[in-house]
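Sharing a chain and its predicted structure for anyone who wants a worked example. Both blocks are below, sequence first, tokens second.
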Amino acid sequence: MGPGNTTTRTRRRAVPWALLGLWVALLAFVAPFASKLADVQHDRAVDYLPASADSTQVAKIQDQLPGGETTQMVVVYHRDGGLTAVDRTTAADQIGEIASAHPLAAQPEGIPSKDGTTLMYPVASTEPGTDEKARDQLVNDVRDIAKSEDGLSVEVGGEGAFATDASEVYNSLGGPLLYTTAAVVALLLILIYRSPFLWLVPLAVAGLADYLSMGVAYGLNQGFGTSVTGQSSAIMTILVFGAGTDYALLLISRYREELRRIERPYDAMVAALRGCGPAVLASSGTVAAGLFCLLAADLNSIRGMGPLGTVGILCALVAMMTLLPAILVLLGRRVFWPLVPRYGSTPKVRRSLFAAMGSSAGRRPLTVLAGGAVLLGALSLGALNLPGSLKLEDSFTSKPDAVAAMETLGKAYPGFGTQPITVIAPTDRADAALAEAQDTPGVDSATRGRSGDGWTELSVTAASAPQSAGETATIKDLRDRLDGSYVGGASAEQLDLADTNARDRLVVVPLVLVFVLLILIALLRSIVAPLILVAAVAAVWGAALGIGGLVFGPVFGFEGTDPGLGLLSFVFLVALGVDYGIFLMHRMREESLKGTEPVQAALIALRTTGGVIASAGLVLAATFAVLMNMPMVQLVEMGFVIAVGVLLDTFLVRTYLVTSASVALRRKVWWPGALSKQPAAGSRELPEPVTETVGMR
């Protein structure tokens, strides 16, 4: 045995161990940073608002005023039969205790309802400033002091209370989201691999990739000021587990095939990486490019999601292309027990579900294509039934104290603005702005507040209920009348969110389509095939939104839709959905390069990748479906639409529509590349169904 063989054996042993050692060192390096990610997570209004909107400028200027940002609350006292003298005394005593315990911007004064059942006290304090923990402590202290007594109901609402309730929800997501996602992925991997050991490997690697992404995300925050919110960190975890497991399924499927052809696991893994590596790199590049386009958004929460989502995808890619292969090679064939792929063995011949599906698509491709297009189009019409913009009080799946207070105020003070509109005016024009605000139609009252750094704060009360059409008209009138001033507050923030999301869709959607299309053209050396894939995922997005429109209101009882749902679901479904098209088309191109006849190439690609695409689709859909268990309506809606879209893409679009289009177009699908001009070779007969060599077998 020569020295060359000895060198090869040494490399086979050394490379996996070296990769494992590098990962141990890398994880040890990022460990101190990963644990700090929660410390830099912020869920203040300014972290979600549009960067250039009036409401954002109001929030920023309030930070500079004496005392910093104001925490606005409303303490609501209510008794169904009418408040008694004792109730009013109790309320006054509790408000006095709050004023003694915390510095308030002004002495609160009670505003009774006309029916005598309710008394509300607006409470504002600059004590917490921009410190979210201090704000939460203040709100909770107020709630501890303002307690219900002897049938007197006491609730604490207002903008500050809403922010605290939302913050508690987001802070509670980390652990449950991670554990639930890991449990769902583990269950599916056990069912897919039917092995007591194999499922642990990709799951553990995905967990380490998530830990790495947390460290990198913290580094981006410290180095470049990238915002980290509860929503973006939750999406990052979902992407790491979902996309990472998809890459693992494709790699392990190809590795299993190669182990039957190649004796040594190291060489089989090298062949597997060469075979599926380009597809995985292209698919991850597509997702990363799509997410990176979110940087063009004006909405802070969406723009901040771009870098974190990209970090999640890239960490998953690096882990699944380096650490996973190293561990699999070191464990050898025995990791597949009891379904061990023996060297030189052939899989059992069996009827393949995907061969049958491909055959049906191959016999009548135009009929299948037309039927699928009609179905997706019909489902898309359901988007017309989507409820309007989500209001603050409808954002929670379970009712917190702030929502209960809002509902009580809505019943006791019908048509009255119980949520202040904040105006920030230049100090030298503050008096004129105050007079103009008081004269604005729809304004009930306006008062002057703090001044500092050339700005003065005005508090405006609308005559209409919060987030009603009347209040919206009042906010717009104030912005039209008060030149040089900024109009903000909770209701103005919701208005800006809706307007900016509409703008961002017009900017980000074309960018995503262009970037995804360019990557596909570079990978597939074609224009027609990429256009088919992009059109397919766009149709899936429309159908998934349509299904959401059919169930959000009638079935789930949601009163509104998050303004960012359309944009975020588009980016995720296009970027992630194209993954499966890449897996299928890349294998089809491999077969075509061998000289396989076009129809055969399409059906062989479906038969050999159908199982792994189905497995990957189920895992990805399940990971996003985990969001449906979260207590925020916007997360539930996003999880539902993306999960449904992924399932439609996996079981209808990839298996039937893309395959049918490829069969119908034959070599034209590769136009104008060289494959479109390549003379036919091989039999034109459809292949007989053979073994489905995929990850689940």
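Comments welcome. The CA atoms of residues 215 and 588 lie 38 Å apart.
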